[in-house]
Amino acid sequence: MSWFGGGGKPKQGGGQWVEMQTYRHDRPSVDGRRGEIDNPQGNATYDRNAHDLTVHGIVSAKPGGGAFLMQQIAEDAQQMGKPFVRTTMTAPSAFGFYHRMGMLPSQASKTMGELSMARTHPNGVSFPIGQVGNPGRLDQGSLNAMDRRIKTSRMQWEAPTETVLHKSSGR
After folding, report:
1. What angle do CA 96, 98, 102 make, to 5 degrees?
2. Are 53 and 47 in contact (CB under 8 A)?
3. Cβ atoms < 10 Å from Cβ of 41
4. Given the DSSP bridges, would you call strands 84-87 and 52-60 parallel, antiparallel or unpaired?
5. Which of 14, 60, 91, 155 has its CA 20 to 30 A from that of 112?
6. What is the pLDDT along the chain (171 residues), one digit of tens a residue?
7. DSSP per-residue letters across 82-148
8. Rounded to whole angstroms, how far apart are CA atoms 44 and 66?
9. How far apart are CA 62 and CA 68, in angstroms?
10. CA 122 to chain centre
11. What pTM was computed for the model?
C-alpha cells in the first residue's frame, strides 16, 4: 500500500510536489479502550470489549469504503480473539450496509422490540391472512409494513467475526 498520492504539481527547480495521505489505525490495546481508523476510504470508531469489538460509527468517503473499514475491524477482532463484531444503536439508514456485512439485529434489539410491541399492542397484532380465492398467504401490504418497521428502527447488530470478515472482503 502506498503512503503517498500520485502526480502532484510541478515545483520550482524541477521534480513534483507529492501529496501525502495520512492513514491512522489506532487499535484498542485493552478492553474498554476506543479504536479509530482514519484513511482515504473513510473513518470508523470502535471499542474493545470482553467478548467483542463494538462499532460506534463508520463514515465512508468512497464507494466500498464502509466494507473496507469493516474488514479492518473484523481483522482486528480476529487478531484479538474476539468471536463477535457488534454495533451500538445504528441509524436506520445503515440497515442495508450491516445486513450486507452478514449482521443481524442483536438479541437485545429483539427483546426491546418485543417489549415495545407488548406495550403498544397488548392484545397482539393480527395481520390479514389470505385474500379471497387465495387462502393461507400473508397479505403483501402487511409484510411490507413489518419490513419498513424493521428497517426504520434504531437497533444493535451483531455477527460472528468470521462472517463479517468473509462478507466485508467480498469472498
Report:
1. 110
2. yes
3. 21
4. parallel
5. 60
6. 444 444 555 556 666 666 666 788 989 888 888 999 999 999 999 999 988 999 998 999 889 999 999 999 999 999 999 999 998 877 777 888 888 999 888 777 777 777 776 777 666 655 555 445 455 555 566 666 666 666 666 778 889 999 999 999 876
7. --EEEESSB-GGGHHHHHHTT-EE-HHHHHHHHHHHHHH-TT-----EEETTEEEEE-HHHHHHHHH
8. 9
9. 10
10. 32
11. 0.68
| Grid cell of 157 as nine digits | 447488530
Q: Using CA atoms, how far apart are residues 15 and 11, in angstroms rounded to an integer?
A: 6
Inter-axis angle of helices 65-80 and 161-169, to 10 degrees?
150
Amino acid at 165: L
- Single-letter amino acid code for the residue at 36: E
Find out whether 73 and 37 touch, Cβ atoms under 8 Å. Answer: yes
Which residue is listed with cell 447488530? 157
Q: How far from each other are the two terminal CA atoms of the chain, in whole angstroms?
A: 20
Cell triple for residue 52? Answer: 467483542
The dihedrals phi and psi of 46, each to the nearest 5 degrees, come to: -155, 160
